[in-house]
Amino acid sequence: MSSLLRSMLREPLFHFIVAGALLFVFAQWLGGSREEPQVVTVDRSDLERLTEQWEAQYGLPPTPEQTSAILRNHIRDEILYREALKLGLDRDDVIVRRRLVQKFRFVTEGLSELAEPSEDELRQFYRSRPEQYAKPAETSFQHVYFSSEQRGENARRDAEAALQELKSSPDDGVDWRGLGDPSILQREYGRRPERELTELFGTQFVEKLSEIEPGTWSEPIASLYGWHVVRVRDRTPGRLPEFSTIRGEVEADWLTQRRKEANESLYRTLRENYEIELLDIPEPDLPGGAPAGDL
């Protein structure tokens, strides 16, 4: 090493110059590593939407100071939202995922402009789904209830005694509403479908109810709660309503079905842009042994 170089290494000025150069290089590298500033744009429509939301919540337009605060909060939220996306905080979050899927479906449904159905299309749709529009059979009846919980084994015997009293005065000379036990059940039901009555009274009750001739008091029949003496007032058989009476309902269902088909078609188009890899999921374990390409 020459004497000149050794003397330079001992000079404080040389050390200062080297340190300054290193700091300059580091500053350049740090500055170059920063991302370009992102632009958060807020236009008049954004401001109008934000102030409308404020007014809807508080019932008054915001003051100038409140408007400034609204804008600051909006900008803050936008920046934090973008940074959250950079960190991937939207991933693996069931609630965020579900919300985004719902919004996408909502947007795509809005894009599905469906032509108005013709009368023939609606009638064909109606005829092809009789089970969808069929009205179930309905039964109207009165009953006198005897609680198994309160009367125990005597519930059926007391029901039979009440039946004899009712039969002795067929012209409603006996106040049937004054007989039996009070309960949460109504004493009279009008035009109720079998499904609803099954939920209320149980399958055994409904099966026996269907055998009762209208207009007469029945032998005691059991329910989930006890025993009943029943008088069927009338029955309305199951029927398919006339198209004209439910046209609005049919049209709404037609639109729903067509929108569903349009969404499915869109999904299939999008699906073609993706390949599915199943990791550690044997294909035979899938329903029907479906291959990944069919998912």
What fraction of the residues are assigned to beta strands by DSSP?
Answer: 5-15%
Rg (C-alpha, Å)? 39 Å
Q: Share of helix among residues?
A: 40-55%
The poorly predicted ranges are: 21-27
SSE order = HHHHHHHEHHEHHEEH
**Count of discrete alpha- or pi-helical segments spanning 4 or more residues:** 12
User: What is the number of beta strands?
Assistant: 4
Structural class: alpha+beta
Biggest sheet, spatial arrangement of strands: 2-1-4-3
Number of domains: 4
What is the overall shape? elongated
CATH level 1 class label of the largest domain: Alpha Beta
Q: How would you summarize what this structure contains?
A:
The chain is an alpha+beta fold and 295 residues long.
Primary descriptors:
295 residues, 4 domains, 4-stranded antiparallel beta sheet, 12 helices, 4 strands, 53% helix, 10% strand
How would you explain this protein's 3D organization?
53% of the residues lie in helices and 10% in strands. The protein is α+β, with helices and mostly antiparallel strands and 295 residues long. It has 4 domains: 3-30; 40-91; 93-134 and 257-270, no CATH class; 135-236, Roll (Chitinase A, domain 3). It has a 4-stranded antiparallel beta sheet. Helix 10 (194-201) crosses helix 11.
Secondary structure layout plus pairing:
Layout: H1 3-9, H2 12-33, H3 44-58, H4 64-86, H5 94-111, H6 119-127, H7 130-133, E1 138-147, H8 148-151, H9 154-167, E2 188-193, H10 194-201, H11 203-209, E3 221-222, E4 226-236, H12 247-271
Antiparallel strand pairs: 1-2, 1-4, 3-4
Helix pairs in contact: 6-12, 10-11
